[in-house]
Structure formats: C-alpha cells, structure tokens
Amino acid sequence: MTETDSEGHTHTRTVTDNHSEAVCGFVLPFGMPSISFNGRRVGEKVRFESTDFNEEFTVRTDNPKFASDVTHPRMMEWMLARRPFGWSVTGRVVDFDVSTHDLLVVDACEEALRGWLGRFPRLVWEDLGMQPPPFLIE
User: Fold this and answer.
1) For residue range 20-61, what is the model confidence (pLDDT) as tens digits?
2) For 87-114, how does the pLDDT look when each residue is reduced to its tens digit (9 = 90+)?
3) Do the bridges between strand 24-37 and strand 10-12 make them parallel or antiparallel, or are there none, so unpaired?
4) In the beta sheet, which residues pair with residue 35?
5) What was the pLDDT predicted at 20?
C-alpha cells in the first residue's frame, strides 16, 4: 500500500489481510432463522440447560425460540457424542467451518447436516411450513 504524508512524501508498506471462508456449504430447499453452532457470529449467544453442551458449543441465533425448539435434550446428546464441525445457517445456506475440502470432510458435513435436520421435532417442520423429511429420527 502506498500512502502520501502531509509533507508530500510517499511511503510504501505491506498489508496482509487474513480471513477465513467456509469450504463446505449446502443450499436447502427452504429457509430458516439464522443459527450457528461453533460457526460464524449470527445473532445473540444462547445458553442451554446442559453445562457440557454450553462448554462444547457456542450457539448464536436471531431467533431464540427456534434455537430452543431445535436444541432439545436429545439433540444436545447427539451433538455431544458426534462433535460435528461448526456450522452456520443463514436463510437457505448452511456453511461448515472446515479448513480442508476433500470427500471425507464433505461426507462428514453432509452427515452432520442430515443428523441435525433429522432430529428436528415435527413442530419445527410445521413452523417452517415444510413436511418432515423421510430421514426424520423420532
């Protein structure tokens, strides 16, 4: 970057910008409130009744009711056992925070997304105006 000071002298300096990008993403056929689990900062931080879950996962959302509806005790138990990569949902887009892009990582992200969506209660699917998926886990 070249800058000119108040005396008209030019100075050149090197600027390095660092940022991270999700490598693995999915587009859903429906939208939902923004929510993240150890992902990007979307909305306010939400805490749950499980201390273990709160220590392992930072959940942020713009809709606390939605977060509470989808983060029920069985979901927390599954997430603690599975420990998936962090992810963020914004509308229809789900981005996983991963540093590599290979088939095993993509498969793990898809498995985590399917496991998460499959554990939504029927009430959540109704609120989203959607039929429960065929892979619903009840």
Assistant:
1) 665 799 999 999 999 999 998 889 999 999 999 999 999 999
2) 999 999 999 999 887 899 999 999 999 9
3) unpaired
4) 61, 89
5) 60
> What tokens does 94 get?
């789900």
Q: Are strands 87-96 and 24-37 parallel, antiparallel or unpaired?
A: antiparallel
Q: Which helix (H) or strand (E) holds 46?
A: strand 44-46
Using a cut of 0.85, tell me whether the model's pTM lies above it.
Answer: no
CA distance 38 to 128: 23
Q: Which helix (H) or strand (E) holds 77?
A: helix 73-82
Q: Which two tokens stand for residue 19?
A: 């940022």
In this structure, are residues 49 and 80 in contact, taking their beta carbons and an 8 Å threshold?
no
Cβ distance 45 to 59 under 8 Å? yes
- Domain positions in the chain are 21-127
Angle between helices 73-82 and 103-118 (to 10 degrees): 170
Name all contacts of 121-128 with Cβ < 8 Å and 24+ positions apart.
Answer: 121/69, 121/70, 121/72, 123/69, 124/66, 124/69, 124/70, 127/66, 127/69, 128/30, 128/31, 128/32
DSSP 37: E
